[in-house]
Structures are given as structure tokens and as C-alpha cells.
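Meet today's protein:

…
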Amino acid sequence: MPINDKQEAFCQNYCNNGFNASQAYKAVYHAKAGWDKLSSRLMVKDDIKQRIAEIKTEKEAVRLTECEKIDKDFDNYQSECKRDKRWTEAIRCLENRAKHRGYYAEDNAQKAEQSRLTEDQLKDLEEFKAWKRRQYLRTG
């Protein structure tokens, strides 16, 4: 059975505002009381669960597309920096990309899970860092 407009609004509100069913129910249905129980009833309905899963999938696809665009921008800028021999900026670009991908996470498990830099990109990062250290030692 398809969901109605209010249920769709509930699902959207739920996914956009921190996955809080009670607050979503209160916002959509303008309930003065009993919204905690009523929201629980909605959350166990298969149609509602399915729609929430669809919305989450859509949001994840958008997030991944945005990450891919950012990665492409990092790649282009890094290539430009290498071509123009702007080594410091190239290093900074690699470091920022690594941060964006979670490489500098505090937890090693999180690093492994979130890092999407290729082995070549990590090798480039280490090479640039070594080059930067050598330059610093020569001028220091």
C-alpha cells in the first residue's frame, strides 16, 4: 500500500533531521501529545520502513557523487601543481584530499575504512613529504 503525503513528509523529515521519529511526527502532524507512541506506530509499518531506506539510499548516492566530484577537483589541482612545480601546494592538496577521505582519522580502523586514496596517491604523498623535508633541511 503506497504511503500518503503526510507519511512521505514524515519520512523526509525523519531522514533530514537526525533520524528522530518523535520530532518528525511532531513536525508533520502538529501533535500536541502522544507523538512518541504515534511515531513508533508509524516506524513499524513496512511501507514507512521501505521509504526511509529508499531516502537513505538516495542521500548516500548524492553524497558519493559529491565525494567523486571533490576527488576529481583534487586530482585536477594536484596535476596542475605538479605541472607548474608548485610542490608545496601539491603536498597540501594531497594532504587535504587525505583528510577529506578520512585518512587522518584518529582511529586506525576508521582510517582503513574511510581512506580511498590509492596506493599510488599515498606513495606520492609520502614522496612529496620527503621532498619537502629535504628542501627544508637545505634551506634551514
